[in-house]
Design goal:
The chain is mostly helical. The chain is built from 19 helices and no strands. α5 runs antiparallel to α6 (98-126), α7 runs antiparallel to α14 (306-326) and α10 packs parallel to α17 (390-434).
């Protein structure tokens, strides 16, 4: 039975609030790392695990969370995930040691992995496919795009005027309000069919994704030749290939391979992976450029992201209307073109750069690209998917973007770091040969070395976005929502 309009939009508001705290929880922590390191006496090598512990469990469990929502009830699983996330946030806020904070961040990731696909599948089953769902996903996409920028601003403000603990505790009032209101407005739903959970597929897919993300994290910090990095990436390959074999033979698979008969869904996930690889890295390197080269404070970095956030809001609002009128493929292609243009603009950043000259035009271009990309790629990932597979499809697109982000940051960080190291080493060698102070030469060469590294990373990021554009044009089919639904209902997907 279709829900009344007022109830549906209240549901969307609650889901969007939840999505907002999940998205900002990644970026909001970045600006608090220095204060956390001082307060809890974090070692430098363990500091990155404040970020990685969350990413590891969040990215690794998304598919399992989506399938659990389909089997056990989307509202029920969503609420369980929200409770886990709230408890994890509270433990983070009151952490007294390195280990306690890292474990609490991992618990937050578990909650997020359960919440995110559950929320998107509730949205999918609440709004009918077509203009109505496109509008809802437009709001959802705007929240997702803006969250990263707002998180930096909010983190800067909280650290500057309150305490680093509030970057976690701020989740509590929002989470508790949603927890109280969801049972009043969201109806329970679940996928039709088997109530059995594919344990073999769950273990291999979840373990494979977790090993992949852990290996990529190690590669970022310890290098691609690190023994543990190699072992974890090899283990990930074995587990993921094993999961494919299991999913092809079991009766009720965690990830039914038949879902990939939906060409638009498949294309959307490929593009989502490449979009995550380029966008996550862009946020990462622009933040470093503003802090390490332009010497902006944490709050200064946050306020300068406001323009980016506003552009994303307006672009996402426009994109849902354009998708309804012209279809997914042309809007997504336009978004990828704008993103490519934004990344290309960032390749001209300078050591003596200024915010208006070096960043504002790129923020506008990339903001339009992000708004025009996130909304249609989400719509495409759910287009033609039957309600019984809503959780799986939602978990799949979230996983594609998260794993893409991990891959992008690992690869592009390696490129940036090796470039910077090479520039500094060359300067030190030249200074030593000339009888000058090597340390002073290294300090003088570092800013330009950082910029050169960022530029090379953006250049490779452009290549990833170009591949995403090609996939958009040649994999995603130009079909209406009704045609896609009919085709895949006939295929039994």
């Amino acid at each position: 039975m279709t829900q009344p309009d007022s109830r549906r939009w209240i549901v969307l508001t609650l889901l969007s609030l939840t999505q907002f705290i999940l998205v900002i929880d990644v970026s909001i922590v970045n600006v608090a790392l220095a204060d956390i390191q001082t307060a809890l006496d974090f070692s430098q090598e363990n500091l990155q695990w404040i970020l990685s512990a969350y990413t590891l469990t969040f990215g690794g469990l998304l598919l399992l969370g989506g399938r659990m929502a389909d089997i056990f009830g989307r509202r029920r699983v969503f609420l369980i995930g929200l409770v886990v996330f709230i408890v994890g946030s509270a433990l983070c806020g009151f952490a007294q040691s390195e280990l306690m904070l890292i474990l609490a961040r991992a618990l937050q990731g578990v909650g997020g992995a359960i919440i995110s696909p559950g929320a998107l599948s509730i949205l999918m089953t609440t709004f009918d496919e077509g203009a109505e769902r496109n509008k809802a996903l437009g709001i959802w996409g705007a929240i997702a795009g803006v969250g990263g920028a707002v998180g930096v601003l909010a983190g800067g403000f909280l650290v500057e005027y309150l305490s680093w603990r509030w970057v976690f505790l701020v989740n509590l009032p929002i989470g508790l309000a949603v927890l109280f209101l969801v049972p009043r407005f969201v109806r329970e739903s679940r996928g039709e069919g088997s109530s059995r959970l594919d344990l073999g597929g769950s273990f291999t897919i979840t373990g494979g994704l977790a090993a992949l993300i852990y290996g990529l994290t190690r590669a970022e910090t310890d290098g691609w030749g690190d023994t543990i990095t190699i072992v974890m990436l090899a283990l990930a390959a074995v587990l993921i290939l094993g999961s494919i074999a299991i999913e092809a033979t079991v009766k009720d698979p965690l990830l039914p391979l038949a879902i990939f008969r939906n060409r638009t869904l498949t294309g959307a996930n490929v593009v989502g992976f490449l979009l995550g690889a380029s966008i996550f890295a862009m946020f990462f390197f622009i933040s470093l450029y503003m802090q390490q080269v332009l010497r902006f404070s944490a709050l200064g970095v946050g306020t300068r992201y406001l323009l980016f956030a506003l552009v994303i809001i307006f672009a996402a609002a426009a994109s849902q209307a354009l998708v309804t009128r012209f279809g997914v493929r042309p809007v997504l292609a336009a978004g990828m073109l704008f993103l490519i243009a934004g990344l290309a603009y960032f390749t001209q950043i300078d050591v003596d750069g200024t915010y208006p000259r070096d960043l504002v035009p790129g923020f506008i271009l990339a903001g339009i690209g992000l708004g025009f990309s996130f909304v249609p790629v989400s719509i495409a990932a759910l287009q033609g998917v039957q309600p019984r597979m809503a959780g799986v499809a939602s978990g799949l697109i979230n996983t594609s973007q998260q794993v893409g982000g991990a891959v992008g940051i690992a690869i592009l960080s390696t490129i940036a770091t090796s470039t910077t190291t090479g520039k500094v080493d060359n300067a030190v060698a030249a200074a030593a040969a000339a009888g000058n102070d090597p340390q002073a030469a290294a300090q003088a060469a570092l800013p330009q070395g950082l910029v050169d590294g960022f530029v090379n990373a953006f250049t490779v990021g452009i290549g990833m976005a170009v591949v995403g554009l090609v996939c958009t044009l040649f994999i995603i089919r130009k079909v209406s929502a009704k045609e896609a639904a009919a085709a895949h209902a006939a295929a039994g997907v």
